[in-house]
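Entry for the shared binder. Reason: the reviewer on the internal report wants the predicted structure included alongside the sequence.
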Amino acid sequence: MEKINPNMSWTPAPTAPTVIVTHFDVHGVCAGYLAAKAFNASEVYANYPATSPENLINTLQNLFAAAPARLRIVCIDIPIDLKNPAAFVRGLEDLAVRHEILFFDHHESSVQFMPQFRNVKAFYAGPSALVLNETLLKMIPNATETDQLVSLVGAVGDRDSEVIKRGLFTVDLQTLSDGVDVLVRQPNGALSTLKSLLADPAAVLVQARAEAGKIPSARLGQRIGPVALSAETLPPLWGPKALEKLAFAAGTWYATGWGVDERTKTPIARAIIRWDIAAKIPSLPMPGAVARSLWSTRNVIGHPAAPSVAASSEEEAREMALAWARALADAATKSAAPATVSLISESKVGELIVEVLQRLEQVLEEQKKMYSEYLDLKRKQVELLERVGSRARAAD
């Protein structure tokens, strides 16, 4: 594994055309755009499920194993397959015999396996998606403001806490990310969006703003402390996004609901934590952890921040969503601000408690600074007394 040099640049030789192979989600497409500009790529590739960790090696072998000329193949934002890491590493190493393979990733799950690469040039730029994007951005000659905007949109699409920590988050970035998400979910959408970005990034961002409105929002049925409960069945394909839009609209930290899994057609309960709130208050419990405490014998599927749990019927899924909302409200109240929740207007509980906690952090930081200054003054006082004592003894 090689260390990132922020000023490194790559200029492919005429005999080694560069191909970018990237993940198929919002971040993968945006990072793929930055990489294609950084490496002056002649070809790009991103597709579901072909560029997933599980399918990447087969995809690369099918596309490039028999290529007549040596290529530079740059893999972006695709973590090492945890189900079979040895086969993943071996597969890239086999390809590196014929082609130059560069592997850029920001997922912490990949770090433990990256030192196993010998011929593959592996670079870890993470764990933040924004850090990976900025690494690629620095490699672009004369990067534009649009390139910087695409970098941020990709990081927001990955729900990257670094965006929040640096104070870079805006509602417009969320809108653009949602719109790009609509585009990449179309048939062959990842590849077509990536190519469109490379042709005219400004036009794609304009289109993304318009497309964002196509993501439906769940309707508020009940507010339980910092949790919004959906009033009706969640829309297919957009369950987590619909819940997140509900949480933003309601000003809550979490949202829960129920629907049907689009692949298995099984009734499910869903929950999300708003990603910006999770970044501001890391101590808040994840919906996945709360689900496991509620239903220890059931599979909790998906990311801990936006999981789902299968139910036997739609009625049970609805009951599970309600139970999940109550459990999340109870767990969040205990972990974040048990004495404050009951005193704040219910409609503003999420936003106001975040502000209170942020102010407390500022107060504590000021107290720490004042205490440090106090200790410094005491030290100087002691030094002064010692000097005065020394002079008195000398005079005697």
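Summary line for the report: The domain at 220-343 is CATH 3.10.310 (Diaminopimelate Epimerase; Chain A, domain 1).
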